[in-house]
Amino acid sequence: MRLKVDFHTHTSDDLVEVKVSGRNNLPSPYELIDLAVAKNFDAIAITHHGIIYRNPKVEAYARKKGLLLLSGAEAFIERKHVVLINYPMLKPFKTYEDLCRHKREDGLIIAPHPYYVLGKCVGKNLEKYPQCFDAVEYSRFHYKWINPAEKARRVAEKLNLPVVGCSDAHEKYQFGNTYSIVDAEKKSVESIIRAVKAGKVEYVSENETLINFIRDLWWTLKTFPLEFYHLSRRISAAFFSFFVNQIRNLKEKINQ
Question: Which of 85, 89, 173, 175 has the fewest CB atoms within 10 Å, i.e. the most exposed one?
Answer without folding.
Answer: 89
